[in-house]
Specification:
By secondary structure, the protein is mainly α. The protein contains five helices and no strands. It has one domain.
């Protein structure tokens, strides 16, 4: 459980990450420490990194896809149906999306 002050600090850092603004090494270490222990912070960090890489448009379909948070934690990861197993490709996804 995050305290209110910790959550606010984390969210301030994540906003700067998503906007592509400067974030210090100490702040990145701070975020990663919580992301490794807390699934919510990990999801927030993944979403902020995704927003930084891809400028979000006002297209409703893009908003839906970004809201579903189906992005890969690896920015260079792409699914190749000829070579990759779909289940393995989604192995980093939240538990509700993995196959049973």
């Amino acid at each position: 459980m995050l305290s209110t002050s910790t959550r606010i600090r984390i969210q301030e850092i994540l906003i700067r990450i998503s906007q592509g603004n400067e974030v210090s090494l100490e702040e990145r270490i701070y975020i990663n420490k919580f992301a490794s222990r807390n699934q919510n912070v990990s999801s927030w960090l993944r979403k902020a990194s995704h927003m930084q890489r891809n400028k979000i448009s006002n297209n409703p379909i893009d908003k839906l896809l970004n809201g579903l948070d189906l992005c890969s934690p690896d920015p260079h990861s792409t699914y190749n149906p000829e070579k990759d197993d779909l289940g393995e490709w989604f192995s980093g996804a939240p538990s509700w999306i993995r196959r049973s």
